[in-house]
Amino acid sequence: MDITKGVMVMGIDPVKENLITHLAVKVKQGSYLKKGDNGILLGSALAKYLRLGVNDTLILIGQGYHGASAAGKYPVRGIIKHPSPDVDRTLVCMDIHNCQNLFSAPDMLTSMVIMVHNNDEVAPTKAELSKSFGAHFEIMDWEEMNQMLLKQIESDRASGVITKGILYMIIAFGILGTIMMMVAERKKEFGVMLAIGLQKSRLMFIVVLETIFIGMTGVIAGIIASIPLLAYFVYHPIPLTGQAGEMMVQMGFEPDMFFSMAPSVFYDQALIILVFTLIIGIYPVLNIRRLKIMHALRN
User: Fold this and answer.
1) What pLDDT was estimated at residue 189?
2) Which end of the chain is more exposed for a tag (fewer CB within 10 A), N or C?
3) Which range marks the domain in which residue 258 is found?
4) b/e per residue 255-290 (b: at least 16 CB within 10 A)
5) Which helix (H) or strand (E) holds 87?
6) How many structural domains comprise the chain?
């Protein structure tokens, strides 16, 4: 019995594609394509529907460039599990040169993906490409191509800001409580230091430095403790199961929680904690400024 299905044929450079999408790690059966390979990769759901396995042959029939017939037989090299159900049901990957031959379109491409190192480079890169090639090609960034995804990211960021705000408040009150206890317990010590001639301005400066030192010591200790943990989870993402995992798959994402070791993850938090510490440092300054030496000594 012959089984047919409409599919999406993608011509790829196996080496470059793997650098961008890490397609090789999604191969669940068989092997990944080699450069110039005459075989194909199938989505697992498509392979199941067509009842095909590794080393079986798939016949592709379609229409090529300028109405030319497109037909060919290709051995199945591997079966991949794509996180997007729609893609997994329709995906056929082959070497770009074989794809060009299939559709009678030598040296032609329908699209080219350019990967930048950082999201901040997307806008200037797009502007530069539009200036150079905009008259002949349509140049789109990922935000224009994935409006729904962009809205989901913005919604997730908004909820993340609220969560981080709550955590920062907890940290700030923790530091404030520590400083309040420190000032209350050392009131007599401050009185003695002022009584033997230390100026209030110098005492204020010393206490502020001590407050900053306490805050930065906590930040540095936290960074040192978190680096090994983050380094592990960068290479071993936490798999999401249940409804959360199913929701991620339905949106076309891999059901994993990924981590980052970007420097901004560390120095942004350190800067925020430093600002909190400086603000909290106002409390002991005001307390010392209002301090009465005789009252402090009697305490």
Assistant:
1) 83
2) N
3) 147-298
4) beeebeeeeeebeebeeebeebbeebbeebbebbee
5) helix 85-88
6) 3
CA distance 62 to 105: 13
Beta partners for 43?
Answer: 80
Give the list of residues 6+ apart from residue 253 with CB closer than 8 angstroms, or none: 83
* pLDDT (tens digit per residue) in 55-88: 999 999 999 888 888 999 999 999 998 877 788 8
Instruction: Tell me the residue ranges of DSSP E strands in 64-156.
Output: 69-80, 91-95
Q: Examine the domain organization and report whether 57 and 197 are in the same domain.
A: no
Question: Is the domain of 85 the same as that of 207?
Answer: no
- Residue 34 neighbours by CB distance under 10 Å: 12
The string of pLDDT tens digits covering residues 165-190 is: 899 999 889 888 888 888 888 888 88
What digits encode the pLDDT tens for the residues 231-263? 898 888 888 888 877 777 776 677 788 888 888
Residues 98 and 235 occupy one common structural domain: no
Percent of the chain whose pLDDT exceeds 90: 23
Same domain, 93 and 121: no
